[in-house]
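Data availability (excerpt). All sequences and predicted token strings are deposited with the supplementary files. A representative entry, Stage III sporulation protein AA AAA+ ATPase domain-containing protein, is shown inline so that the format can be inspected without opening the archive.
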Amino acid sequence: PAIGHARRMQVATPAMQHAVMIEAVENHMPEVIIIDEIGTELEAQAARTIAERGVQLIGTAHGNTLENLIMNPTLSDLVGGIQTVTLGDEEARRRHTQKSILERKAPPTFDIVVEIMDYYKVTVHPNVIDAVDAVLHQQPVQAELRWMDEKGEIKREEVIAPSNSTLNCSHMPYSFNNISCTSFALCPYHGCPLSNAAQRFT
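Structure token line:
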């Protein structure tokens, strides 16, 4: 009863989830698709296809923070993907950085990322482009912390997370594919209650 008039698509095997995602768009003309546990490159590709067709997309993946997703070679394309760029000497001096830097490769599939920190606490990144670029440039990341107090009221606070100085090219030994809106949640544990979280914090 919790899903109302929504249609639930059965996935026979986890390996076929990407095909079911595309089938849902092609055969049912949905306004919104909710996907639990995007976990493979094919599913990430399907998510981009769905978003580019104008369907609102809500999805989850395992991880603790946005940086976890950026560092994941399978799922990083959900937030635009990563590529290594070599700067000229003059540009590197102007930026006060090393010559090889990490840059976002494409527009993200999802516009918003929600880090589920606790059952009653989330961190919201309302602009994924700005957040990802800040992480890659090792700059502070602006976000919004939301939580439910003992009275059941939703509280909000603007927060600034420090940059991660360990995020650099030496930690990215992967070959990233060029796969490049919508909202997204990172679930730190199995069986994340996405629907409950959405009801609590929207």
